[in-house]
Design a protein that fits this description.
The chain has 13 helices and 16 strands. By secondary structure, it is an alpha/beta fold. It has an eight-stranded mixed beta sheet with strand order 2-9-8-7-6-3-4-5, with helices on both faces. Helix 4 crosses helix 9 and helix 11 runs parallel beside helix 13. It is globular. The termini are far apart. Bound molecules: pyridoxal-5'-phosphate (PLP). The site of pyridoxal-5'-phosphate has 12 residues, from helix 4.
Length: about 375
């Protein structure tokens, strides 16, 4: 059977995944510091009120509205109003996931072989989405000097005749880098001058540490056609509800043309379901409780981590927010890579290479329950001493 080239992935297991599978199969006690699924991290969800909208009889009526039902889009507009941004309903498009939103935008902006620029290190999912949409993903570097910055020169130099969009993840996963206001202005100006769109992924925007520049790109005037992405999986810690959105900003004529085409793309799939759209206003309105629980967990875990690593050879890199912490660690311990040595000692960490980080970096999920976290980082400290 012949399959498409775009699905010709190497689906084999890498050696670290193999070792992890074996350790789990052997029933070894493992402290897993990588769990990022909020529904599996011991948070208290208000089950009754979250599930109530799903049984509304009005959800039995099928209303195929390509951009999303009006009440649902109004709830998203209210979310942006709380962030200080006015987003009109005709600038919003609902999707079943942020990944689907990326795919809509790639199909809106790119022909096969066109290029989209994304930061490195960053979230590896973009590679897959771009490949499935026949788009070439080109990396621009994030640099680290006591904090992360966009390499603006490299970003500018990466723009070619085939570039259709620049992706900024604000804050970035896994580095936790928020675009500063100077970077924001520079990227907007660059995109406007070079006629490329700006895609800003703000799924972790609400999880900034107190010092972070956590301003949404939906606020203020953008000289560039801008698509701001977010969704329930992080904003409400409800990944199972499958609901995200695109908020469009920028020059009016570009926005209108983009929305007309996006509406056609959305109409082709009509992927949103009615019960979730009915639930969206309730879920967004009740996000503060869950966000408070997650921020408390992040704060507690970061404090415990910093205390445990003090005086060790491991160092936490400076971050502005998000659900992950990046550690600089010794490359090898006793002849093994650090992550292998950690696994042998009973702790699961994510290899930094997974995100395009250099060797000697590992990534931890700040959602990890405190008991697992405390035990795990104590072992990590010993491994890295
Ligand atoms: C930066 C970033 N964007 C998008 C996503 C995907 O979000 P969704 O669950 O809405 O598809 C993730 C998931 O972790 C992410 O880290």
């Amino acid at each position: 059977m012949r399959f498409s080239e775009r699905t010709a992935w190497d689906l084999g297991e890498n050696s670290f995944a193999g070792r992890l599978r074996e350790a789990r199969a052997a029933g070894l006690p493992l402290f897993d510091l990588t769990i990022s699924n909020p529904t599996a991290c011991g948070f208290a969800y208000d089950e009754r009120s979250l599930l109530a909208p799903l049984s509304e009889t009005s959800a039995l009526l099928y209303e195929p509205v390509p951009l999303g039902m009006e009440n649902a889009r109004a709830a998203v507009a209210a979310y942006y109003r709380d962030l200080g941004a006015e987003v009109a309903l005709d600038r919003l498009c609902l999707t079943t996931s942020t990944s689907e939103a990326y795919s809509y935008l790639f199909r809106l902006l790119c022909d096969p072989g066109d290029e989209v620029l994304a930061a490195s290190p960053s979230y590896p999912l973009f590679d897959y989405i771009a490949r499935l949409d026949d788009v070439r993903l080109v990396e621009y570097p994030l640099l680290y000097h006591d904090g992360w910055q966009i390499d603006l020169h490299a970003l500018e130099a990466s723009i070619t005749k085939r570039t259709r969009a620049v992706i900024v993840v604000h804050p970035n996963n896994p580095t936790g880098h928020f675009c500063s206001s100077a970077e924001r202005e520079a990227v907007q100006k660059l995109c406007a001058e070079r006629g490329v769109a700006l895609i800003v992924d703000e799924v972790f925007l609400d999880y900034g540490l107190p010092c972070a520049e956590a301003q949404s790109f939906a606020t203020g005037q953008s000289p560039a056609l801008t698509f701001v992405l977010s969704g329930l999986s992080k904003v409400c810690a409800l990944p199972q509800m499958k609901c995200s959105w695109i908020a469009t900003a920028g020059p009016k004529a570009d926005v209108q043309a983009a929305m007309a085409r996006l509406e056609m793309i959305a109409d082709t799939f009509l992927s949103m379901n009615a019960p979730v759209q009915h639930g969206l206003p309730n879920w967004l309105a009740s996000r503060h409780d869950m966000q408070g629980q997650i921020r408390a967990r992040m704060t507690e875990n970061l404090a415990a981590l910093d205390a445990a690593l003090a005086g060790s050879l491991c160092e936490r890199l400076t971050m502005g927010g998000g659900w992950t912490a990046v550690l600089r660690v010794p490359r090898t311990v006793g002849g093994m890579e650090f992550r292998e040595a950690a696994l042998a000692a009973g702790v699961v960490v994510q290899p930094g290479e997974f995100y395009g980080l250099p060797e000697g970096r590992v990534v931890l999920s700040l959602l990890t329950p405190l008991d697992v976290w405390t035990a795990g980082i104590e072992i990590l400290r010993k491994v890295g001493s």
